[in-house]
Each structure stands twice: as structure tokens, then as C-alpha cells.
Amino acid sequence: MSMFPNAQNFRVDNMHLHPFQHVYNAQDSQIDGWKMLLDNVASNALHDSSARFDAPKCDEDTRVEVTKELMDWIQDHEAPQRLLCMTGAAGAGKSALQQTIAEECSDSNTLGSAFFFSAGDPTRNNLTYIVPTIACQLGLHHSALRNTIAKAIEKNPLIFKKKMRVQMETLVVGPFKHVCASGELDRSTFLHAILIDGLDECSGEENQAELLSTIKHCLLGDPDLPFRVAIASRPEWAIRSALCSEPEGYLYQLAYHIPLSDKYDATADIRRYLWRKIQDIGRRSHDRRAHSSLWPTEEDIEKLVAAASGQFVYAATVVKYVSERRGSPVDRLKAIIDWTPEGGQQTRPLELLDILYRNILSNAKELYEGVDTNRGRDFLLLVRAHQDDLHEHELADIVKSYFDKWKERYKGDGFPKWVWD
């Protein structure tokens, strides 16, 4: 028999008993806002993430002028434009510049957050994680801000399902203003640089436009916010239409625009990069021919510089291929020179980069089929099916998607490191 036959609702310590309900502990019902935030962060998108090991960055003595311009803008708190948009074609070196700037800002204690989009990574090819990732990085710099962000999530645990503008106001703007108003944070000394790379790799032009609109309305609209946002992207529709002068885009007056390919000629930097890297490869090679002061020749370097047409991606691909340790750098460089047509830039943008990719893959085909127990698989078939109307970045995406499928099968056996890079 029950000791309390008429009891309906009472409390013992932290235990609540209600009619027709299970018994539960009050402490178990607490929401941990910071833990929820961590569950919605794209750690792969951080500038120092292990997933981005050996991320591209500017080589010594290269891109000095544009790097200085970027850092000067970040450090100038009085500059009226608090948004910087750096645009350039595929392979122009945007990501390398953003990585370099992120590291310099981190060293100088000005990096608030960084997010590197990537089309091939489901955690960083959409808008799902970008605001939580930015909020998390900002919160890690200041305990009071971190606690305020956590409380905002505990108050509204469905925030991660809300529109981006609501997320930005709830997780970034609101908590920052609250902590500043309480006197716990000095906005003038807070780490203020927010870097976003590869906006064009965020899937969907509408999503790209939504991010730009959110930044405009949430981070640029309030003069009391200290944030300076630097975005790098190919000049595709979302950012091109926002920055255009006629008709005037909604970011035209607000953004400091650096058209990378137009403003900075990278030819001299590419020349220095190729000389330094290839000579260094030669010094470390077991091929005695590579130790000669006559290798590489000036003619070889100039032919590669002309083929690069101002795009660092071409030079970086050459260096990766020549540095592959299973072959002679002398032979590999000669192969690239032989593959390179005379006459420099072709009629289609970056056509010589496509030619380089195709020849590297064709040359690698024999190696891959040599370790394949099921002969007859032509892994260039997919590329050939598209090459008539293929853009350079589409070719790279197709190649990557193919090798992703084959990586697990071969476990890296017999595959040069540059393939996975």
C-alpha cells in the first residue's frame, strides 16, 4: 500500500513527480549551450585545421604588395569600408593569400575567425555551419562572450535551424553588444578580423548572395561593431552583381574591392617561385643531373612562366609534379616542357592548365593500371567525356571526385602524393 495515497505533486531534492509522468532528474534537463555550438561547428574550415594540412600559402618574397595591402586594410580601424572583397580567376592565388593573411593575423592577435569553404567537403560547402563556426571562434577569445553565446543558445536551442540572419544576430551580434555594454569587453582591442575564403565554393548562388546580404545587414550596419570582414571569391554572379557599379550593386559603396587578376601582375612572383622551388627540388634529388647549375635552364623557366599566364595554380602544379620522389625531377620537368605548346596563352582561359592536367593524368595512367589487378579500367574516360566544353575548375572537380572513389580501393599504394594533394 502507498504511504501517500492522496499525494499528487511533491519534490524530494532534485526529483519531480507529476501524475502520469516519468521520474526525471532536474539536472539532466539542463541544456549545455556551448556543447550544442561545438556540435554545429565545421572544424575542417579553420585556417589551422588538420584537415587542411599543408594548405597553400604565399611563398617567400611573393605576393608582397597585395599582402601588405590586405594587412594595412585590416589594421586600419579608421577606414570607412569594413568589408573587403578580393576576386580573381581560378588559380590566381586567392586561397594562398587568405591563408597567409590568416596566419599573419593570428600571429598579430587580430584574427577573430576564419572560414575556408570547399566544394568537396560537406561540412564547408554550404551555409549550415558558417555562423556557428564564426561564433565559436569569437567566443574562444573571451570567456564572458563565450558564456553569453552559450546562454543565447540555451534560451533558443532551435537557433541552428533558423535563417542565417537570425543566427548571426543571435550568436554573434547580440552577445557581442551585450558583453560590450556590460563593460566586460573592450571592442577597440578585440580580435576583429573575420576571413572567409572561397565564397564561390558554397553551393548555390542564392546561398552565396544570402551570406553577403547577412554580412551587410548584421556586421556592417552597426558602426559600433569592430569587425572587418575579408572575403575571397571567384567573380561569379553573387559577388559580381553585389559589387558592380552600373547598375550599382548593394555592396558597391560598402566594399573595398581588390580585383586580383587585374590589379596585380603575378608574373614576376611566379618566376621567382619556380626558380626557387625547382632548384630546391634539384638539390634534394638523387639524380646528379639535377645538381647542375645549368638545370633548370632560363628558357625552361620562361616557357613555364608564359604558360602560367599569371595563375599560380599552374606553377604550383608543375612544382608538385616535378617534386614527386619516385621519378627524376629532370625527366619530369622535360616532360612538362615537351607538353607545353609554343605561343603562350591560348584562346580559352587557362587552356594550358587543362593541357598540363591531362598530360599528367595520361602519364600516371600506366602507373595506376600497373597496380590494378582488374585490367582495362580507363580512369580518363570521365574526363574525355567532358573535355570539349570543360572549364578548368570543372576538370579539377571531376578528377578529384574520381580519385576519391578509388582512394579507398588502393589505400594509397603506388600513388604519388601529388595525386591526393
Question: How would the blueprint of this fold be written?
Answer:
Elements: E1 10-12, E2 15-17, E3 24-25, H1 33-38, H2 64-75, E4 83-87, H3 94-107, E5 111-116, H4 130-140, H5 143-155, H6 164-181, E6 193-197, H7 205-219, E7 228-233, H8 237-243, E8 255-259, H9 260-263, H10 267-284, H11 298-308, H12 312-323, H13 329-339, H14 351-370, H15 381-386, H16 392-410, H17 417-420
Parallel strand pairs: 4-7, 4-8, 5-6, 6-7
Antiparallel strand pairs: 1-2, 2-3
Helix pairs in contact: 2-3, 4-5, 4-6, 5-6, 6-7, 7-8, 10-11, 10-12, 11-12, 12-13, 12-14
Largest beta sheet: what is the strand line-up? 5-6-7-4-8
Assign an overall shape: elongated
Number of strands: 8
* Fourth-level CATH superfamily of the largest domain: P-loop containing nucleotide triphosphate hydrolases
| Helical/strand content category | alpha/beta
What fraction of residues sit in β-strands? Answer: 5-15%
Assign the CATH architecture of the largest domain: 3-Layer(aba) Sandwich
Mean pLDDT: 83
Percent of residues in helices: 40-55%
Rounded to the nearest angstrom, the radius of gyration is 27 Å
Low-confidence runs: 14-29, 385-398, 404-421
- SSE order, one letter for each helix or strand: EEEHHEHEHHHEHEHEHHHHHHHHH
Indicate how many domains the architecture comprises.
2
Under CATH, the topology of the largest domain can be stated as Rossmann fold
Q: Helical element count?
A: 17
InterPro entries: NPHP3-like_N (IPR056884), P-loop_NTPase (IPR027417)
Keywords: Repeat
Protein name: Nephrocystin 3-like N-terminal domain-containing protein
Organism: Candolleomyces aberdarensis
